[in-house]
């Protein structure tokens, strides 16, 4: 059985690819011509060059596949042109799944995000049923993922496409080569560059558990349903403190109010637009940082058999990988 994986050169996608290969499945990956392929080193897979914005390449990629794992996304918290996110995250997802349906692919998994879910104001863990609206989405990335998930749901409901949705929380662990925004935070803390923190929290999951959750969703998930693939809820202070201790650095001790940083975020964005560079931090990023992104994995555990490991293991593995690969 051949499985197509998009985003396999990236963080979560490369973990999904490795899980598939370890499970004895034949894997094909869709890779852009400009992508860094170092995450594919040593992994037995067929490489097809293409792009989510190129329908012809998508048709070639899905031909002969029985399953599709659509993990790829444009994951940037700041972009000069928001439509660039929509072309990949929304239009590209719809085009890929339509091509897969035309090729008689029997089952598909779409990687969404907990960013599309609602948040409980009392900081209790949110579930797949916690309501949210487009107005709740902070930033262009979250808006694009929210609209993309709505488009995928429409493909299930109106076109009867066999798609299961998964919503990873904050994956952490090895092979975060870029690194992702969360990985960059871990890397900075491990390097002793995070002496202060803001009051927020994340649901920390080991990237390999999230990857295994994709395979479980493909095997056991109900079409049209969504499943949170998370781990353990932690405050940012505890996350940064744990990383600092693993790396032999001093944990952050100063809490900075969000509003103090907001003028600097506006300046950083102005600088980014002027010099066409991603800002060090953004207004939307600070707005998101006011929230405690806590989630429950009860549904995935009960229906898929998902079993996440403690967050400490994810943080330790991330620090070890960054150190072993010269990031520290």
Describe this structure in words.
- With 328 residues, the chain is α/β, with parallel strands linked by helices.
- It has a domain at 2-178 and 205-238 and 294-310: Rossmann fold (3-Layer(aba) Sandwich).
- It contains eleven helices and twelve strands.
- The chain has helices spanning 11-22, 55-62, 82-102, 140-159, 181-190, 207-220, 236-246, 258-275, 283-288, 298-304, 311-324; strands at 2-6, 26-31, 46-49, 67-70, 107-111, 163-168, 170-172, 196-197, 201-206, 226-229, 232-235, 254-255.
- The strands form three sheets. It has a seven-stranded parallel β-sheet, sandwiched between helices.
- Helix 4 (140-159) links the parallel strand 5 and strand 6.
- The radius of gyration is 19 Å and the shape is globular.
- 46% of the residues are buried.
- The model has no long low-confidence stretch (mean pLDDT 91).
């Amino acid at each position: 059985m051949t499985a197509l994986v998009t985003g396999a050169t990236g963080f979560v996608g490369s973990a999904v690819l490795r899980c598939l290969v370890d499970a004895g499945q034949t894997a094909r990956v869709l890779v852009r011509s400009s992508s860094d392929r170092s995450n594919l080193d040593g992994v037995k897979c067929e490489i097809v060059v293409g792009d989510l914005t190129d329908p012809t390449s998508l048709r070639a990629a899905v031909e002969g596949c029985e399953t599709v794992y659509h993990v790829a996304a444009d994951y940037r918290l700041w972009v000069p042109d928001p439509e660039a996110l929509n072309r990949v995250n929304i239009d590209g997802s719809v085009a890929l799944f339509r091509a897969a349906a035309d090729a008689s692919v029997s089952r598909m998994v779409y990687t969404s995000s907990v960013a599309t879910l609602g948040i409980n104001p009392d900081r209790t863990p949110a579930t797949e049923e916690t309501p949210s609206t487009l107005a709740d989405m902070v930033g262009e990335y979250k808006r694009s993922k929210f609209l993309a998930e709505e488009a995928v749901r429409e493909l299930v409901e109106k076109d009867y496409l066999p798609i299961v949705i998964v919503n990873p929380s904050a994956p952490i662990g090895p092979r975060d080569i870029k690194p992702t925004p969360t990985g960059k935070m871990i890397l900075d803390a491990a390097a002793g560059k995070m002496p202060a923190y803001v009051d927020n929290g994340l649901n920390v999951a080991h990237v390999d558990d999230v990857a295994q959750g994709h395979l479980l969703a493909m095997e056991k998930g109900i079409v049209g349903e969504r499943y949170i693939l998370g781990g353990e809820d932690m405050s940012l202070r505890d996350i940064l403190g744990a990383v600092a201790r693993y790396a032999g650095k001093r944990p952050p001790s100063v809490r900075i109010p969000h509003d103090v940083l907001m003028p600097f975020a506006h300046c950083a964005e102005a600088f980014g637009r002027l010099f066409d560079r991603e800002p060090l931090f953004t207004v939307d990023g600070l707005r998101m940082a006011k929230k405690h992104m806590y989630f429950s994995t009860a549904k995935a555990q009960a229906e898929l058999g998902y079993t996440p490991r403690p967050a400490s293991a994810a943080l330790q593995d991330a620090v070890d990988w960054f150190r072993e690969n010269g990031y520290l």
